[in-house]
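Record now logged underneath.
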Amino acid sequence: MGTATGSAFDTETLRRGIEGNTGNTLLSLYADDAEIRIIDRNTQPSHPRILHGRGEIAEMLDDVYRRDMIHKLDRCVVQGDHAAFTESCQYGDGTRVLAESMITLRDGKIAEQILIQAWDE
């Protein structure tokens, strides 16, 4: 079962994007009108942070990839027009972050993402 238009999601590009040094490769996987809902201790489920479009997503990725941290794609599962992945991160001071994402795909690009993240305090 493929995506609605038959375009496959590129999980290798997802890995390279997450584990890279900039957000540019990762940004290439998002549709122009993509939306990300971020849920964490600061932006809880009733009031998530919502990013609209590649411009806002690029700003968030630029902020994240400027930080002293490493990122690793731990798992990724793709089924039809949906995918889920786990990302683990570690700041230079040892603080760890774990993020889980569920994404909806359109034409092989990320159209919607729900990102739930937690970090050491």
Notes: The first strand starts at residue 30 and ends at 39. The chain has a mean pLDDT of 93. Residues 11-119 form a domain with the Nuclear Transport Factor 2; Chain: A, fold (CATH 3.10.450.50). DSSP finds three helices and six strands in the chain.
